[in-house]
Amino acid sequence: MGRHSCCVKQKLRKGLWSPEEDEKLYNYITRFGVGCWSSVPKLAGLQRCGKSCRLRWINYLRPDLKRGMFSQQEEDLIISLHEVLGNRWAQIAAQLPGRTDNEIKNFWNSCLKKKLMKQGIDPTTHKPISDAEVKEEKNSSSDKAYNLQMAPQVKGVSTVSPFTAQEPTFLIDDSPYYTPGLTDNTKEQFMNKQNYDPFSGFEFQATAADQTGYNSNLVSQYQNGQFETNNSNIAFSSMPSLTSFDHGNMSGADFSDNSASRFQVNSIKSEEMTPNSWHEAQLHPQNSVDFSSFPLTSLSEDLAGANFDVFHQM
DNA sequence: AAACGGACCAACCGCTCACAG
DNA sequence: ACTGTGAGCGGTTGGTCCGTT
User: Fold this and answer.
1) How far is the CA of A44 from the C1' of C20 (A)?
2) Which H, E and C letters describe A236-279, residue by residue?
3) Which tens digits make up the pLDDT trace of A145-172?
4) Chain B positions with a protein C-beta closer than 7 Å
């Protein structure tokens, strides 16, 4: 199909977004919610195409974005997920609340790829480079268990060998994968990690999440963006972390690392924001909701302690 | 201080898919 | 069944930053 009709129109701005544009888009979305992106530019008074607006919102303005460096746990998780999912960045991003596919993709291409190569691991196959070459020469069929067991230890991921025959812990495309070394303690820890999300009304905003997920007969089943356990639901929350925001007031808030966007939006004290407000905003985007007043407590640590542990402690 | 080159990252491009008419 | 449109995704590009010479 190619270009969107909205992009064909002339006089549309391209390139970096100005703080004024950010302000317009942010104010519009927070007021009216996300509806039809193609109509957003016109209604928000922007000389941009809807696609550009959508991207800007998703990758930059969205209040639930977690900005800043990737933690070691996130890094490990990305590597592990990439090993299974490949370049399906949206699906990988769905497992990392507050991170965008673009962000993860960039992080992978600029950092993780090189890191793996330095460690002698083919970032594409996640196999030892020499081993992969040998196997290629022999033209033998791939044997995930073999290759991963032979793989050199990768810092932080060294013990993540999803394919060594142990208990199946999750399903990818209906295929069971295995997570060895998951002790009973760890399992129990994970099972008990339901407290990490204080906003139980929130569901993991995995818009891109599909049937791919972690399926475990011992821990949880991940479906439709939620972990379901025998006892309860573990829902990734997409609550805003807003680590770079001022509490309750975005006036002058540093909206980015490069401080490109400084603007003021109607502020509501953070205390006024209830978890359900965000949920409401998701369910009823037509309602006016001020994202700037979402709870600002970063839950990244909690999250890291929750879902990341599944991998990290294995 | 200037030039250069690599790293990083925001944004764009082109494609596929879903859905409505 | 076909077509047009919108949304989403992954690959790529180009600008900026920063360290090195």
Assistant:
1) 45
2) CCCCCCCCCCCCCCCCCCCCCCCCCCCCCCCCCCHHHCCHHHHH
3) 333 333 333 333 333 333 333 333 344 3
4) 7-18
Outline which parts of chain A fall under CATH 1.10.10.60: 5-61+242-283
* Angle A67-A69-A74 from CA coordinates, rounded to 5°: 100
Beta-carbon contacts of residue A91 (< 8 Å; ≥ 6 apart): A81, A85, A208, A209, A210, A212
Distance CA A258, CA A255 (A): 8
What token pair was written down for A271? Answer: 């205390």
Q: Which residue has the tokens 């933690």?
A: A71
Looking at CATH, the fold of the domain delimited by A5-61+242-283 is given as Arc Repressor Mutant, subunit A (1.10.10)
Q: Which residue has the higher pLDDT, A37 or A209?
A: A37
Q: Give percent above pLDDT 70 in chain A.
A: 38
Give A195-241 pLDDT, tens digit per residue.
333 233 333 333 333 333 333 332 233 333 333 333 333 333 333 33
Q: Where are the beta strands (DSSP E) in A115-220?
A: 168-172, 175-178
- A244-272 tens-digit pLDDT: 333 333 333 333 333 333 343 333 333 33
Nearest CA to the C1' of C3 belongs to which residue? A1
Give the C-alpha separation, A18 to A20, whole Å: 5
Full-model pTM: 0.55
Structure tokens at A106: 């960039």
Residue A231 to residues A58, A59, A164, A214, Cα–Cα distance (Å): 33, 35, 28, 17
Q: How confident is the model at residue A131 (pLDDT cuts 50, 70, 90)?
A: low
In whole angstroms, B8 C1' to A232 CA is 41
Q: How far is the CA of A88 from the C1' of C9 (A)?
A: 8
Give yes or no for CB of A52 within 7 Å of strand B.
yes
Angle of CA points A310, A84, A80, to nearest 5°:
40
- Rounded CA–C1' distance between A108 and B4, in angstroms: 26
